[in-house]
Design goal:
Distance between the termini: 40 Å
Low-confidence stretches: none
Number of strands: 11
Radius of gyration: 13 Å
Shape: globular
Helix content: under 10%
Number of helices: 0
Strand content: over 45%
Mean pLDDT: 96
């Protein structure tokens, strides 16, 4: 059974930083694409970032490029999202998703950025 559990969300002031984690199990993490997707209040899902766990290839939405960094620890089956210079528009529920076409989703973690 695919399981993804996010953690690390919270309330932070504008300009601050947070590090999200997603612990994965139930599939071959080291050969998977891992994604972060977010949903702001009243809006649809927005892709944030992806990483190929078997390579160093990373991808970012323009809205977060140069501020967010995605990484993995294949020994711990964990994907991270380091978020710096946070803005109020980054406020959202952040989801971890596994797969190029996602086959598993976590329950999400709330990130709130106060201005």
């Amino acid at each position: 059974e695919v399981q993804l559990v996010e953690s690390g969300g919270g309330l932070v002031q504008s300009g601050g930083s947070l590090r999200l984690s997603c612990a994965a199990s139930g599939f071959t993490f080291s050969s998977s694409v891992m994604n972060w997707v977010r949903q702001a209040p009243g809006k649809g899902l927005e892709w944030v970032s992806s990483i190929y766990s078997y390579s160093t290839n990373t991808y970012y939405a323009d809205s977060v490029k140069s501020r967010f960094t995605i990484s993995t620890d294949n020994d711990e089956n964990t994907v991270y999202l380091q978020m710096n210079s946070l803005k109020s528009e980054d406020t959202a529920v952040y989801y971890c998703a596994a797969g190029l076409v996602p086959f598993g989703w976590g329950p999400g973690t709330q990130v709130t950025v106060s201005s």
